[in-house]
Amino acid sequence: MANLLFYLMATLATVCAIGVVVARSPVVSVVSLLGSFASLAIIYLLAGYQFLAAVQILVYGGAVMVLFLFTIMLLNLGDPAVIHGESEPLFHHSRRTLLGLGVAAAVGAAGLIAILRVAWSAMPQPAELPEGGLDPLDQLAASMFTHYSLAFEAASVLLLATAVGVLVLAKRNRRPTAEVFPRESQQPATPSSPPTSTPSAGAQGQEVAEEGVLS
Amino acid sequence: MTTQEIAGLIDQTYSPQTWAGLAPLLTLAGGILLLLFVELFERLHPLRAPLFLASLIGTFLAHKYAGAVGPILGGSYIVDGATVAWGQLFLASTMLAWFFARQYYRTSLAFLGEHDILLLTAPLGMTVMAGAGDLVTFFVGLELLSIPLYCLAAFRRRRNDSVEAGLKYFILGAFGVALLLYGAALTYVGTGHLDLAGIAAGLEGPGRPLAFAGLALIAGSLFFKLSIFPFHLWVPDVYQGSPTPITVLMATGTKAAALAFLMRFAAVLPGSSANLIALLAVLTMAAGNLGALVQKDLKRMLAYSGIAHAGTVLLAVAGTVAAPALAGDAIQAVLFYMAAYIFTAGGAFGILAWLEADGDLFTRIDSLRGLARRRPWLAATLSLFLLSLGGIPATGGFLGKWLVFSVSTRADLITMTILGVLLSVVALGYYLRVIVAMYMEPEPAELAPPMTERAWATFGTSLCAWMVLILGVLPGWFLGRVF
Q1: Chain A CB within 8 Å of residue B197 CB
Q2: A63-105: per-residue pLDDT in tens?
Q3: ipTM of this predicted structure
Q4: Which residue of A115, A123, A154 is in closest CB contact with B140?
Q5: Partner B contacted by A132 (CB < 8 A)
Q6: Which residues of chain B have a pLDDT value below 70?
Q7: What is the rounded distance in angstroms from the CA atom of residue A91 to the CA atom of residue A81?
Q8: In A, which residues are within 8 Å of B209 by CB distance?
Q9: A203 pLDDT higher than 50
Q10: What is the model's pLDDT at position B1?
């Protein structure tokens, strides 16, 4: 029963993951991602990791997904084929696609051979699942704050750096070049060009062109 | 687990020794936080530069005085002599990148504070990578290094080439990290361990084939960061599109960090993989050197030359895999090679950054023609760096190559070593072409606008030049300091 459920969930997770990549509409992508997260949570539960399963649902299924959906809804993205009035196939039947598929198949085959050659009977088998699951909170906390504390703390610096990086890439210029779009500047870059208070459609268009690809 | 047990565990983990080992990382993290705080108030902005330099110097001193304290945090972070030496090299690489970034940017001025913060995060990740004793710590260190670099590569976000470089680096980097994680998962299934010592012991068990598949994938992700054939194709585009000061960091620091962990990781790899690694090394040298021969753009040529150098130093890794008894010599050779490479390539890319100023002028070899008549000192320094890259005696580059080839020869990789030496001679062809252009060819008809004098860049370039000479003439000074 548990095995059957595992295979079901593993298939579902894979199908959903493929769906994230091939879906044309971002909303479909996000919902596929949600399906993938949920099936992963059930796999964690089957493996005895109750806390991890709960966190997976709460953090990824809940918070992250809502953020994704909100962003997509606010950006008002639709089907790109509809927006651009054209529909291109996602994968062209070219030599590169064949090459990519060939490499993927070779890597997959190598992995399969490695797995088949493992003597499973000699591998240590997991014992019966303990009552509180495999990850009681106190042990998780103990290893996180002793053995893995460097990775844990470094991850916090990583998140900080990511936030700074996102700001650099996505924020509008704090001190814009005065000639191009003076209306945004609280303090003009040069005293000789005071900011004009009325925003105009022309300035808006110029700004988009100036800001380029990312904003 | 009772409260007393937990308290005991925490006391046992956080001994003074642990704090000493973590001191350099904590100093860097403190510097990052202070820089973030300074960004809050415009009046504090003049403090940026002193704070940045103070963090680097403080971390350097922390490395020096805390010293090698051995494995800490249950073996997940290993502070040995190599970690300390690598940590100091990463700081040197970051400092060079920062010197050359002064007065480099013309259009992205608004985010210079954030630039420095991201720049200071990179050595933190590199040091974590160099000392990582298990794959989890290594993974976090790798991300901590990569994510700031993705953003910095795309830092000149109004320029298409910069955004393209950032995006390419990000997508391929994410692919490399996926390889790493898949490999770590397979290794864990095969051996039941994530720490390197446990993996080495678990390789004897029944999960051997699966663990080998995992180790191969992890090595692949390391080769990607190190730009080893066939994972080298991203390098020219990314190096060319990134702001040149960031290219300095990518070409020197990132490579050194991947190599630092690879040297630790090599102890786990089976001896039979040595020939494959040596073959990859020679193929990388061939790809880099032959690619560089046909380049017309100096920055792109230096990128290909960086690929070739990664191949050379990989020969030492193959040597230590083939003969584990040579591990001490191999780490010394690799450290020396990378120390010389950081100052040589750092100086060469730095001069390029100085000449071009925000990517507008002067990256073609043609525009360097006759530079020796206009700027004799600059041309002489650039020639010194190019000769050191080519491995001419009396420069640091020569001695690095000598140490690496001596390790691979003693490990019985004779054929590959001979091929490597021959390919190094090919490399001289394109290095000398630039020198010929600077000294013997007439100046182009329309001269580029005169470059601005930049004090920091002058200082950085002369520092690099002195270090290349010192490493070449007095290698004992460096080697005696490290071990």
Answers
A1: no
A2: 888 888 787 777 765 555 555 555 555 566 678 888 888 988 9
A3: 0.88
A4: A154
A5: no
A6: 1, 107-109, 357-362, 445-452, 481-483
A7: 15
A8: 113-115, 117-118
A9: no
A10: 65
CB-based contact A145 B207, cutoff 8 Å: no
Question: Which residue from B396, B264, B250, B267 is spatially nearest to B336, judged by alpha carbons?
Answer: B396
For B99-140, how does the pLDDT look when each residue is reduced to its tens digit (9 = 90+)? 998 878 876 667 888 899 999 999 999 999 999 999 999 999
Structural domain includes residue B339: yes
B74 close contact with A: CB closer than 8 A: yes
Domain count, chain B: 1
Residue in B with minimal Cα distance to A148: B76
Give the pLDDT of residue B445: 65
User: Measured between alpha carbons, how far is A156 from A146 in angstroms, rounded to an integer?
Assistant: 16
- Residue B184: which H helix or E strand, with range? helix B160-191
Q: Does B112 touch chain A (CB under 8 A)?
A: no
Taking a C-beta distance cutoff of 8 angstroms, is the pair B28, B51 a contact?
no
* Beta-bridge mates of residue B132: B77
Task: Give the minimum alpha-carbon distance from A6 to chain B in angstroms, rounded to a whole number.
Answer: 17
Percent of chain A clearing pLDDT 90 (strictly above)? 17
CATH code for residues A1-82: 1.20.120.1200
3-class secondary structure, A56? helix
Q: How far apart are CA B115 and CA B94, in angstroms?
A: 12
pTM score, whole prediction? 0.86
Taking contacts as CB-CB distances below 8 angstroms, the residues of chain A near B212 are 114
Q: Which residues of B touch A168 (CB under 8 A)?
A: 111, 114-115, 118, 151, 155, 157
Q: Does B15 touch chain A (CB under 8 A)?
A: no
Distance CA B70, CA A104 (A): 41
Domain ranges of chain A: 1-82, 136-178
DSSP 8-state secondary structure symbol assigned to residue A215: -
Shortest CA gap B327–chain A (Å): 27
Q: Does the pLDDT value for residue A134 go beyond 80? A: no
Q: Which of residues 126-155 of B touch A (CB under 8 A)?
A: 128, 136-137, 139-141, 143-144, 147-148, 150-151, 154-155
Is the pLDDT confidence value at A180 over 60?
Answer: no
Is residue B345 in a domain? yes
B205–A contact, CB cutoff 8 A: yes
